[in-house]
Amino acid sequence: MKKHNFTYIIILLLTAIIISCSDDKSSTEPELVIDQALVGTWDLTKIIAKLGTSNLELTPEQAGYSVTAVFKDDLTFQSTTTESDSVTVDAGTWGTKDGTLTITINGEEPESSPYVVEGNIVTLESTVPYQGFEIDATLEFTKQ
User: Fold this and answer.
1) How far is CA 53 from CA 49, 50, 56, 121, 122, in A?
2) Any idea what the Cα angle at residue 103 is, between residues 128 and 141, rounded to 5°?
3) Residue 91: which of 105, 103, 80 has the closest Cα?
4) CA 139 from chain center: how many Å?
5) What span, in angstroms and rounded, lies between the C-alpha atoms of 101 and 69?
């Protein structure tokens, strides 16, 4: 009978441990807020590609890559990306926290990047396709 009670206690303890260790995303995810300066329509106007120790400044036309993003005050967004002859439209949610912009395209993992708004210009760090490669770059967007 004691062996039976011991097994029962072990099962209860394991159950309690599993429940207490469950993934609670709401307590670990930062609470994102709206930055009113980002609300509006933004067009990519400059790409500063980081190539080793030097930078290459490109227009979207030179890079063959353009983006228009619309950030709404309900924390949703839509972006249209043109690369060569293909056009991609994405939608999802956005928010900011401590100088970091987080974008979640519907069905994908969130992506975050530091950003800076100066007047009608916003810059952020990202990767962009260029001549068949993904390169690190600073993207400059102008508010329309």
Assistant:
1) 11, 7, 10, 25, 24
2) 50
3) 105
4) 14
5) 13
Strands 86-97 and 40-51 turn out to be: unpaired
Supply the pLDDT for residue 128: 80
Mean pLDDT of 74-81: 96
Q: Are 38 and 99 in contact (CB under 8 A)?
A: no
- Which of 69, 71, 78 lies closest to 35, judged by CA? 71
> pTM for the complete prediction?
0.75
pLDDT above 70 covers what percent of the chain? 79
Amino acid at 38: L
Name the phi and psi angles at 92, rounded to 5. Answer: 170, -150
